[in-house]
Known about the structure:
This protein is an alpha+beta fold. It has two domains: 40-202, no CATH class; 216-352, no CATH class. Helices cover 26% and strands 31% of the residues. It has a six-stranded mixed sheet. It has a four-stranded antiparallel sheet with strand order 2-9-8-7, with no helix packed on it. A hairpin with an 8-residue loop joins β11 (172-176) and β12 (185-191). α3 (219-231) runs parallel beside α7. The longest helix has 35 residues, at 2-36. The chain is elongated and about 115 Å long. The chain starts with a helix and ends in a 9-residue tail after the last helix.
Amino acid sequence: xxxxxxxxxxxxxxxxxxxxxxxxxxxxxxxxxxxxxxxxxxxxxxxxxxxxxxxxxxxxxxxxxxxxxxxxxxxxxxxxxxxxxxxxxxxxxxxxxxxxxxxxxxxxxxxxxxxxxxxxxxxxxxxxxxxxxxxxxxxxxxxxxxxxxxxxxxxxxxxxxxxxxxxxxxxxxxxxxxxxxxxxxxxxxxxxxxxxxxxxxxxxxxxxxxxxxxxxxxxxxxxxxxxxxxxxxxxxxxxxxxxxxxxxxxxxxxxxxxxxxxxxxxxxxxxxxxxxxxxxxxxxxxxxxxxxxxxxxxxxxxxxxxxxxxxxxxxxxxxxxxxxxxxxxxxxxxxxxxxxxxxxxxxxxxxxxx
Length: 354
């Protein structure tokens, strides 16, 4: 009788143990898929991702064996800031960079400043809540330097920021890149134990750099940005190229003060612009003042910008442009005409031809 009564008790105990194991397995499975599982896209040539702000997309370059997390730290209608790290993130560094709409950047998935780039990241579209990015693989054996605006730092990257909607629980502080504009801002991501992420951004220098990137795509800004390319070729101007270009533009051969020897003399070269610098400062709200300055040794033009532009960062529009110094008395029509002539010359002598 004792043996018959002991059987059901042992069976019930076994059922309880099985039930507990099943509950633990279900909880572990749910935890894995919610917190650990990260859908990974294997990139052969290129792939496009839609990333919500505060979340990440995960990818692997075919054959590399390394999973990369691309985290959208901040997004606006015209720009976006990203953090990128290898997984597991606790063992790696963090790359950070920002992009204006339609622009791209070369990055190394090695997350190393010394490594050459193996992917190109392009911001296709962005809004206040998400960004669409295209990642294109750079073929192995093709050397592509990593963009200088990529910042590499040591903090821990978001370890559970998943494409399924899991928010970050790490704290990250890293530099915001500024293209050619000196000084950088910073982005801080701070979270609490609740599933919400608070992003506090230093919008000073870093934001100003993004404004310049956007302003460079306007009618006035694109011309001033284009002048930078023209001035960078001045050292390649030869006598034959100068004389030929001068005759095409003016209809006669250069002479006297317009001769190649006189124009390119050391004294006169100091009077030509050596490049274009751009800076931005906030006026109020989405209104910014963007200054384009042409550095030169001419003492007459060392007091300020050549164009002072009022730019609406929200509507992406030029509100007003004031022409100063070298461009005093000009307007957009004349600016466009001069730029068209110089780009039409197509050689290093363009800036020297009157």
